[in-house]
Amino acid sequence: MLGIGGWDWLAISIYIIGTIVVGVYMASKVKNTNDFFMAGRRFGKPFMIFFAFGAGTSGNDAVGVSSKTYTNGLSGIWYQWLWLFCTPFYWLIAPVMRRMRCLTTGDYFDARYDGSVAALYTVVGVTQLTINIGVIQLGAGSMIEGISDGAIHRNWAIVAMTVMFVVYGVAGGLAAAIVTDFIQGILTVILSFILIPFALDAVGGFKGLHEGINDESMFSLVAPGEINMFWIVMLGFNALIGIVTQPHIMGVCAAGRTEMDGRVGFAFGNLIKRLCTVAWTLVGLCAVVMYMDTDVRPDFVYGQAAADLLPQVMPGLVGVFLAALIASVMSSCDAFMISSSGLFTQNFYKRFFVKDKPDAHYVWVGRIAATAIVVCGVAFAFIVDNVPQGLMLFFKLQGLMGAAFWLGLFWRGTTVKGAWAGTLTAFAILIITSRPFFHEWAAINLPDMMIWDGKFRDSWQILSYLIGGFGMGIIVSLMTQRVPKEKLDIVYNALRTPVDNDEPHHPVPFTLPEGVEPHPGRKLINHPDLEIPRPSAIGISGFIGLWVCVAALIGFVFWMAGLGA
Fold first, then answer.
1. Whose CA is closest to 269, among 255, 281, 286, 283?
2. Which domains does the chain have, with CATH numbers?
3. Alpha carbons 335 and 37: distance in angstroms, whole number
4. 506 vs 389, higher pLDDT
């Protein structure tokens, strides 16, 4: 039926029923907004690892990477590995987010600046996650259409998956997302690696891969065309600037019991994703040989490979693959849905309209907002042309408020008007440099190294809006009224003070528990206006260890690329 066998439907049904049961059960645990938006901050390292992995990984990633690898070669890996060089910094970022003692990242902008900047962030944050929900759904729908040989249209697949994750996510909030992500994370790892042995066997191993492609540039991590070294550097830098402004990162870092739970979860959950990216890339390379004489859409490559390879192994494997795919979608979209609804509820609805209602009221507003945001995300999925295009749009949007976040974190002199100016300047540069008239002008007037395929390169566009955003943020801050010292002291006192293992939740962000004195902290640069903390021994050792892991991953891919040559 629909190109999928009875055993496959059984595997899918077991997964779907189990997930919905978990969501309904977790709904009984939701008592207040802290439970709904931050899961009560009660999860340990294993759950936080798979929550970070699940929230940041979806079948859409496999589609995007395999699609780019299919067209560009091994360098297509950078469409996800652009976050690779950020991973060691996650070890340092996680405790900072936890010490904010916030429900949303919008709470940080409200406390550091004012409600207007929090509202601006709410608009940007909800927009980027809405787009990401749409892109993820598009990628998964494309894969399902490919694996069903066109019997299931991707639009119908998108609608069906949406209903599933909305049901359990709206019911159980972030706790349901974290618990289901533990299972879904394992299934996503299965999704990533299940095809590799069969795909390699189909092309004759690594030797057959090299003989079939017969173009050594396809096995280069740095290509002479679009994905050059400057592209990798700039997209990696933008990833570091923008990762903290993704709304769901607050939950990924702060839903654990302790700062160490957040560190381990954020860093190692994403390290697992970097490893899975290697698997997606390898499938994309195998597909170049498998479909050399056929007309397969790049977006459909991963799904088509699964449809061609898995049924030959044993009945039900396609169902396991689809269950893993659906799991990867739901594990990301549920976190995005809850985080964006939290932004709307806490930093817009409650901040400006209805302030004094019981917590239960805001939980229901969050549920309604979550549903509305997902509907908008699905609408975007029907509009965007392809997965890599959608990924790049989301990636650029996340950097727009990076200047306001980082300048506000490290420099007391950053003002409200400076935050607005930096964000709007970055947005204006992004819009202008994306328009056809600018691409035409750039192709004629700018050096060739800044142009690719007749358009202004993404890497130079990113450099432009980051310089504009940070530069204008600093200039305007130097010329405008500062945020009151008393307000800033509350923020920086909380950021310096570690979170106790049994610290109770306080409804007001950046509030230390009663009887706890602010930690004096240690600055890296002893200047009254700078708040750059000196890393602890745990911070430094973890940071170095993760760089070793990054180097090992790159070395492994170089070694793998030479196998069979």
1. 255
2. 6-24+43-399+535-562 (1.20.1730.10), 400-482 (no CATH)
3. 10
4. 506
